[in-house]
Specification:
about 270 residues, alpha/beta, TIM Barrel, 8-stranded parallel beta barrel, globular
């Protein structure tokens, strides 16, 4: 079984210090959270840029400042930028960060109700636009799928030659408006993947560690982080992103899954093809 790739979503666009005071906003806070998560075992940092007051931004200069600061401390760490941004951002605004030619970025593969009046819009043409831009700039995409229809959309675009192998997916489960994070949901998505695809699983809130264990057991990979879940266990706030990574490493040891380094992660995901 391949070594386990751990992605850490250190900040997100929505979670605030009012929810957990250790959520990073500033560049120094981002660097500290990335550095300690890396030391704990994360090989990929999933990055949403924030301004110092916590507001989400897709400004490429802010991203560049954060990325450079993280790489100064952890040169081999893989930075996976978000093209999801925050609800209400335009396609142009969300895609601006791709002009930095990051090593990796998320590709959201369908529209979703995010609760209340919030709609996370990703039309077929939006997905094609992002995929084409990532192909042009040689950015490795991780296809974020919140439900089975999103996987079906990727298959359609694979047939059209828009989405190209090697294929790597992220199941984001437990979001309002998407699939829940029960074992049946995980198995359904896993069995719906194209042949030879790799995948990671991000469980939101209470689903984070139960889904992490399923992914570890079935040979998949894991995403944790304060973007997805602010608790180490019920009622106990995490003191850092590293706390969440450490818990996954402990689960992995129970299943005898070794942890992948950044260089091993690049090999597993065939990032240089």
């Amino acid at each position: 079984m391949n070594k386990l790739i751990i992605t850490c979503a250190i900040s997100g666009a929505e979670v605030l210090k009012e929810h957990n005071q250790v959520v990073p906003y500033t560049i120094n806070e981002m660097v500290n959270e990335a550095k300690t998560a890396y030391a704990a075992g994360a090989s990929i940092i999933h990055l949403h840029a924030r301004l110092d007051d916590g507001r989400p931004t897709q400004d490429k200069k802010r991203y560049l400042d954060i990325i450079n600061a993280i790489h100064k401390e952890c040169p081999d760490l893989i930075i996976q930028v978000s093209t999801g941004g925050a609800v209400g951002m335009s396609v142009e605004e969300r895609s601006d960060v791709l002009n930095l030619k990051p090593e990796m970025a998320t590709l959201d593969c369908g529209t979703l109700n995010f609760g209340g009046d919030e709609i996370f819009i990703n039309t077929e043409n939006n997905i094609i636009y992002f995929a084409n831009k990532m192909n042009e700039l040689n950015v490795k995409y991780e296809m974020e799928c919140f439900e089975k229809g999103h996987i079906d959309m990727t298959k359609r675009l694979i047939k059209k030659g828009v989405i190209k192998p090697p294929l790597h997916y992220s199941f984001v489960l437990g979001v309002i408006g998407g699939m829940t994070g029960e074992e049946r949901d995980f198995i359904f998505l896993k069995e719906s993947l194209p042949k030879d695809a790799t995948y990671s699983v991000a469980g939101i809130g209470r689903y984070e560690f139960s889904l992490a264990e399923l992914a570890i057991k079935h040979g998949g990979h894991v995403r944790v982080g304060l973007e997805d879940n602010i608790y180490l266990e019920k009622g106990v706030l995490a003191n850092s992103n590293a706390d969440l990574v450490n818990k996954v490493v402990k689960i992995a040891k129970e299943y005898k899954r070794e942890i992948a380094s950044p260089s091993e992660t690049r090999q597993i995901l065939r990032m240089e093809e």
